[in-house]
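Project standup — Tuesday

K.O.: blocked on the structure for the chain from last sprint. Re-posting the sequence here as requested.
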Amino acid sequence: MLSDVLAELGLPAENIILLGHSMDGVIACPMAAAGPSWPLKGVIATGFAKDLPKALADGFMQLPQQYYIELLVAMKDQLMFGPPETLAPDMPAQSHIANTHMPRAEAIDIIKWAERAADILAAVRVPVYYKLAQYEQLWDISQQEKVAALFQNSPHVVTGIIAEVGHCLDFHLLGSQFQDEILAFASSL
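H.V.: unblocked you, prediction finished:
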């Protein structure tokens, strides 16, 4: 339980804001929707929509039947980053140290997110920061407003498109502006 973890760290269980990007955003929203026993003040959830592009979902379904999947670096770079002019000269090469395999089940589960997204997002009852990257390749950004509207019981939703970044927001030249924006949201709660 989160309150136990905070107690072990000597931190108060108050003013908690869940932050999740991509699959972690898809995990943070059900946690918020469950009406946790600890005092949740808000959710910062970025990097997901409702439906994966069909070609990507079909590709995930064709992944080998094994526990871990190793995606090619070039494929990851294409999916995770915006155009070269949005990146520092050492990117995406400097990010490759963080590359790792992923469970196949995670890729399959994210395809099914569309089936449960509306109910989960409607159950979130705290302020929400929800945005997608301008150069998002994993999700259909045309769904951004539609997904933001699913947070229908949130008292306040900050939404929009994060300019000049790809899915890996922080690795782009404007990544620090994104960080400033989410910190400002958190401090406003």
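K.O.: great, moving the ticket to review. The radius of gyration is 17 Å. Residues 104-122 form the longest helix (19 residues).
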